[in-house]
Amino acid sequence: MKIITMEDQAFIRQIASYHVQMLQHDPLIVTQSHTMACALYEEMIQRRIELNGDYIEATVEGDKVIAYIWGHHDVSSQTVTIESLYVSPNVRHKGLATILKQHIETWAMHQQARQIVGTVLENNDAMRALNEKLGYSVQKVVMQKMLKYD
């Protein structure tokens, strides 16, 4: 496991790309082109590490990120938001997500946060089950209706 810092530009670029790929599966998010969105998230991650102390921990093999978690601490609400959690398909079901979530919980306690929140897509049964196993509960459900035009 590696804590990502500003010096880890290649890893930040990979994390931004994975984050954008996951956003493309979210029906509530409209993204620009993949290249533009990646560049924007790469810059956002860099700035949030530098200016806000965001927490990003990754499992890396050589020069490749195979799993990561990205969390942001909002001091005013004493809330850590899990911005993104990714585990490469070829290493899933090996406990990496559990370890990453436990590590961010430890970090959140060091930040004196009172709660951790995150968003999980409705059809992501594995992540929902993991969150419930780790003591997370559903606090709200986002409902959507697509409008049809004649």
Automatic annotation (TrEMBL):
It comes from the Bacteria. InterPro entries: Acyl_CoA_acyltransferase (IPR016181), GNAT_dom (IPR000182). Residues 1-150 form the N-acetyltransferase domain. Transmembrane segments: none annotated. The lineage of its organism: Bacteria, Bacillati, Bacillota, Bacilli, Bacillales. This is GNAT family N-acetyltransferase. It holds the Pfam family Acetyltransf_1.
